[in-house]
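Per reviewer request, we include the raw input and output of the structure prediction for the construct analysed in the revised manuscript.
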Amino acid sequence: MTTLATADATEAALRELLAEVGRLRADPATLAADADLHAAGLSSLATVDLMLAIEDRFGIEFPQERLNRRTFGSIAALRAAVEATRQQPA
C-alpha cells in the first residue's frame, strides 16, 4: 500500500527527473499531475532518457507491458507505474 507521503515523494522525484532529462518546454514543477507530457514537449528520445533515469533513481525495471506512451503520458501515470512496479515481486 502506498502512503500519501510516499506518493508525494515519488511525484517530487519524478518532477526532478523531468527537469533533468525531460527537455520539456514547461517547468515540470508547474505542470498539473495529469498534464500531457507529450504536449509539453516530451520526445521519444527524452522518454528513453527519462525511463532510464527513473529505473536508476527508484531501483526498478519497468516491465515490457509498461513501456508505452500512456505510461509516460503524465506525471500521475508515471507515479502509478513506478508504484505498481515497486510492488511487483523481483
